[in-house]
Specification:
alpha+beta; Jelly Rolls; 8-stranded mixed β-sheet; 4-stranded antiparallel β-sheet; 10 helices; 14 strands; 21% strand
């Protein structure tokens, strides 16, 4: 451990020879078994690209309200587009943030008998007056997809599987980029920027505006700060990787506390997940690792599904009840009845 609350790992070790690569894999396995979170440096993301992304994010949130609401997510049955402040919920409580959700650019699936999670497939909503947002997000997506694949191959080897294990079982990845602004609050007590939760998929790479704290991670029943580290992403695993390792790796609760007014905070999480219909099989861990598996956490209010699409749909319906009620009342009714 460093003097930070989370370990710091250097991805470039994978390109520095067998010994350095083996050290990275050992550190990766330990960090995600013990904590579920770590900082990742050596990703090759340039300071210039980070600056362009931050500028595009600030320009988007500075657009007139009418332009942002023209692409509001309640107009999208696929949960894409802009969410106004207070328009998302975690554990039933309102999150104090605004954001734009961007996923794979695809045509909607129209099979009425298909699984409910097929409704997450569809086009994005982009601001008409800011074409540069799409350009920088596309570049960001392509670079981080390469980082995510490299990480997953290292994880596979660290868990005793063959290097291409996750490549074989991912199918066409279902990615999601959220560009988020947390406005400042002047209340006397900390406010819920986003409430405590675990991510529903496999892997999250989080970029945070330099110098802006607020992220907290649960460790041993206590909330610890995870301040931004220059040149680093905050990385965490999701529920699907916990399932695939039967609890050897554990998804970890995390939350964001709102900044104090007049400050604000920009963050950009990148979620790298398998195809919606992909079902990650349980990894046959080496005996010494299997002996340390803790089992999947049994939470009846938050079941972990083996099929990624079921996990993703569960999260979307909970987080955006207005979108769910407008476009998917049958799914809401089915969830209520179950």
């Amino acid at each position: 451990m460093s003097d930070l609350n989370l370990p710091v790992l250097d991805l470039s070790l994978l390109d520095q020879g067998p010994d350095a690569a083996a050290r990275f894999r050992a550190e990766l396995r330990a960090a995600t078994h013990d904590v579920g979170f770590f900082y990742l440096t050596g990703t090759g993301v340039s300071a210039e690209l980070e600056a362009r992304l931050l500028r595009a994010a600030k320009d988007f949130f500075a657009l007139p309200e009418a332009e942002k609401l023209a692409i509001e997510n309640v107009t999208s049955p696929h949960f894409r587009g802009y969410t106004r402040v207070g328009g998302e919920r975690t554990q039933g409580r309102v999150d104090w943030r605004e954001q734009i959700d961007i996923g794979p650019e695809r045509a909607p699936l129209t099979d009425p008998d298909g699984p409910g999670y097929n409704r997450l497939v569809g086009p994005n909503l982009w601001p008409a007056t800011q074409p540069e947002l799409r350009d920088v997000v596309t570049e960001w997506h392509d670079h981080l997809t390469g980082v995510a694949r490299k990480l997953l191959r290292a994880w596979a080897l660290a868990l005793g599987a063959e290097e291409q294990y996750f490549d074989r079982h991912f199918g066409d990845p279902q990615t999601l980029i959220k560009i988020v602004r947390y406005p400042g609050k002047d209340d006397p007590t900390p406010q819920q920027g986003v409430g405590a939760h675990k991510d529903s998929g496999v892997l999250t790479l989080l970029w945070v505006e330099p110098g802006k704290g607020g992220l907290q991670v649960e460790r041993d029943g206590e909330w610890v700060d995870a301040p931004p580290v220059s040149g680093a992403f905050v990385v965490n695993i999701g529920e699907l990787l916990e399932y695939a390792t039967q609890g050897y790796l554990r998804a970890t609760n995390h939350r964001v506390i709102s900044p104090r007014f007049p400050d604000e905070r920009i963050s950009v999480p990148f979620f790298f997940n398998p195809a919606l219909d992909a079902r990650l099989p349980i990894i046959e861990l080496p005996a010494e690792l299997a002996a340390q598996s803790r089992g999947v956490e049994d939470d009846p209010d938050n079941p972990i599904h083996a099929t990624y699409g079921e996990n993703a749909l569960k999260s979307r319906l909970r987080a955006h009840p207005d979108v769910a009620e407008r476009w998917h009342p049958d799914l809401v009714a089915a969830r209520t009845a179950s």
